[in-house]
Amino acid sequence: MSAIGELSSLRADRARRPLTPEEKAARRRENNRDNKTAYLFLTPWFLGLAVITIGPMLASLYLSFTQYSLLQPPTWIGVQNYLDMLGDARLHHSLKVTFIYVVVGVPLQLGFALAVAIVLDRGMRGLALYRSIFYLPSMLGGSVAIALLWRQIFGTQGLVNQLLGLVGIHSTTGWVSDPRYALWTIIVLHVWTFGSPMVIFLAGLRQIPAMYHEAAAVDGASRWTRFSKITLPLLSPIIFFNLVLQLINAFQSFTQAFVVSGGTGGPADSTMFYSLYLYQKGFGQLEMGYAAAMAWLLVLIVGVLTALNFLLSKYWVFYDD
Amino acid sequence: MTDLQESAPVTTTRASARSAVGGRSASSRARSVVKHAVLIVVSIVMVYPLLWLLVSSFRPTNVIFRTPGLWINDLVTSNYTGGWTALAQPFGHYIVNSAIVVVGAVAGNLFACSLAAYAFARCRFRFRNMWFAIMLITVMVPIHVVLVPQYILFNHLGWVNTFVPLILPKFLATDSFFIFLMVQFIRGIPRELDEAARIDGCGHGRIFLRVMLPLMGPALATTAIFTFIWTWSDFFTPLIYLTDPNAYTVPVALKSFLDATSGSNWGAMFAMSIVTLVPLFLVFLFGQRFLVKGIATTGGK
């Protein structure tokens, strides 16, 4: 079961049958030993949780109510950072850019991943080869080398314009240097890395018993009916899983925008992703308090969207058990 | 566990079932031709940029901007020799930096995540479900919310411009994703094995070392490979913690290429891009089986 399925179905596992006193004593001894071992084995994780995750989260909550430049101790300013965020036009713009990226890029990538996964059905010749080819970009796509390549491909003299030239369109637009198109080149890069959701979809498709389709085909169901009545509902938990994870990841996108724009979020702030703006505020202008407040807004947005996703999932996700 | 590789029987039963239903008619053959045609076109679009990058790295810079094709008229290697020495340090220096970080991160994840996973999968302890839920939720916490205080902490400890901030968190099992992956894997290992070891007088420590770890090979390999790829490509963390050019890892060095040569020396930059992609590609090539299984497991059953 997927991490997300697991999370929504966590239940206490207790012994159902009443135990004899000897059994109880044995169980207790065993539990005590298990307890000690577990806490010993989990020591690194507990330390990490405290020092690397929860501690910093609390500290960042505190810092979000302060003004802090790293050089002097933080000064408490109450909700001023949050009020400033309300009036920060650049922040609103970065939210808009990020939303466009998420709302267009994520469904496009998932749609592509699902379509290709369905075409690549089980009996297909060359499946392993196609799968590798489609999966490769998503393994390399997060690297700076690929982002630099992208910057060049969509540059004034880049590959895209060279190819357009071959078919007689002589464009002098540098796609990455034109505010109208720069964001879309990053969306294209995102869609290009559809390989990892595709692999998850392929695994999911494999879980659907072939006999469902066969039975439906015998009953005369069309391909479309089989797709919409069998494949989609049975795949819905996996679509849901991909959607939640990709959404969370897309909101945190950074490298591609940073490299393509040379760290500026330009041209004209058209690739100013939220996390890029946060980085600029915190580590460029040393407004650590403001950056912390921005981080909490991000948590809030991602949290609300994830919760919304879980709520809406009741209407379209089918758990078959 | 989803098993993608060993599914030959499924394939044949379905193929034969299909021929029993409709037969391998002319229309199904035509459909298969169309399918392959579409897939081949998509494949070309997918790999073309990568091939073009490879070819361009062997072209003189002034030719790169005039040739969309993949043929090479005069092959040059000066991009590689020039690119290797274009920054303050020879490029090998940054590769060594990256290698140190990657080895540390892989070791950390293997060590800490396997311990935690064993505890979650095989021990009964108080608040287990609560801790497990917390572990799953931390997969979803945006890194930005811990970023500033973490930086302040590591800065106070004098660890900025060292590799500690990049490696230490892995030894503290902060990549919960891998804990979950290993828990899933351990659940698939028959309990009889560790119960037999227990009857023979083994404690948890020995069961973990002697029984579980040897059986966890595939899960450990998946973790190592993913950690390698993600750490090698990671740009954000090194960008924040490594401000001294001598400490740069490969992605940050590659990025600084752009500033140092002000975009004029694309050939050299492409050559060094290829150099940084080669280890990723090799790991992908040899670890693909594990990568596919690992990622499928997290989403599937």
Automatic annotation (TrEMBL), chain A:
PROSITE patterns found in the cross-reference section: ABC_TM1
Record's keyword terms, sorted: Cell membrane, Membrane, Transmembrane, Transmembrane helix, Transport
SUPFAM superfamilies (UniProt xref): MalF N-terminal region-like, MetI-like
Regions that span the bilayer: 37-63, 99-120, 132-150, 181-205, 232-251, 291-312
Any one GO BP annotation for this protein: transmembrane transport
Localisation per UniProt entry: Cell membrane
Keyword flag Cytoplasm: no
Domain annotation ABC transmembrane type-1: ranges: 95-309
Family label: Belongs to the binding-protein-dependent transport system permease family.
Name of the protein: Carbohydrate ABC transporter membrane protein 1 (CUT1 family)
Species in which this protein is naturally found: Kineococcus rhizosphaerae
Lineage: Bacteria, Bacillati, Actinomycetota, Actinomycetes, Kineosporiales
